Amino acid sequence: MIPWLGGTDAFPPLELALSEPNGLLCAGGDLKPQRLLEAYRQGIFPWYAKDEPILWWSPDPRMVLVPSEFKLSRSLYRSLRAGRYQIRLDSDFPAVIRSCAKTRRKSQSGTWITTEMESAYIALHELGYAHSVETWVDGVLVGGLYGLAIGKMFYGESMFSYVSDASKIALAHLARYLDAQGFGMIDCQMNTSHLASLGAREIPRAAFVARLQELTANATHGRWPLDAASRDWD
């Protein structure tokens, strides 16, 4: 059995998280901004399906991407150099999270981004914590990603792509933007071959949390400049 959170209950110690399924820590609680920010600062995130209670996770090991370690393949470099797109930050966060919710994943029968989750992260966006990186072509949103920024830590949540490389282009611009801003780590949560091909790697949860405490020590927030990531690739 895992602990059940009441309205004001604190999260249990991460050491109590299950090894199978990896990282399941507790259930219950709510998705209010204060609760979500508390969770992310401790290395915990919500992930559950429709008609399930809110489930909270902290897997060990943790998949992370250091912005400066992003791997740029030749094909992606060619797409970036072609420049037939525009990158925008925070211009239409609701459209990005809704597109992510509609995207079918090979390993999932449905979406984990419920209507309740959408509302919660849109609220965090309005508070200046949740951000979107968007790929546009001829005025049409064709790909992107969203996540949270606390201090110099970015927590990646989900991405989508309607055309080839659109989400990878957004991630490449995100990595470069975060590196320029002094961010130390992108949380990728779970290991996938796709993320590994882009430079992400696993680290022990204890190391992840220790680094997390350093990066979130001076937490600032606010909207990102619309075109801050739109620089040419040479």
Q: How would the blueprint of this fold be written?
A:
Elements (H helix, E strand, L loop, with lengths): L3 E2 L18 E5 L4 H9 L3 E2 L8 E3 L4 E4 L8 H9 L3 E4 L3 H10 L12 H12 L3 E8 L2 E11 L2 E9 L4 H15 L4 E5 L3 H5 L3 E3 L1 H11 L19
Parallel strand pairs: 1-2, 9-10
Antiparallel strand pairs: 2-4, 3-4, 5-10, 5-11, 6-7, 7-8, 8-9
Helix pairs in contact: 3-4
Question: Can you tell me about this structure?
Answer:
The chain is an alpha+beta fold and 234 residues long. It is 30% helix and 24% strand. The protein has 7 helices and 11 strands. The protein has helices at residues 33-41, 74-82, 93-102, 115-126, 166-180, 193-197, 205-215; strands spanning 4-5, 24-28, 45-46, 55-57, 62-65, 86-89, 130-137, 140-150, 153-161, 185-189, 201-203. Strands 6-7-8-9-10-5-11 form a 7-stranded mixed sheet, with helices on both faces. The chain has a 4-stranded mixed sheet with strand order 1-2-4-3, with helices on one face.
What would you say about this model in short?
This protein is α+β, with helices and mostly antiparallel strands and 234 residues long.
Q: What's the SSE pattern?
A: EEHEEEHEHHEEEHEHEH
Strand content: 15-25%
Helix-and-strand structural type: alpha+beta
Q: Describe the strand arrangement of the main beta sheet, using strand numbers.
A: 6-7-8-9-10-5-11
Total tally of structural domains: 2
Mean pLDDT, to the nearest integer, reads 93
Unreliable spans: none
According to CATH, the homologous superfamily of the largest domain is Leucyl/phenylalanyl-tRNA-protein transferase, C-terminal domain
